[in-house]
Please model this.
Amino acid sequence: MFASPLEKMAIVIQSKNSDGMIIILLLNDIYIYLPILQFYHLFN
Model:
């Protein structure tokens, strides 16, 4: 089961918590999802 970056981002936003650990658990490849993380921070 492979999630696209947008799907992964949606999961991160839906599941985000105060310490952000869920992000680390969800991101399999930090180099692929770094742009997603930067985009995600706009929502915080």
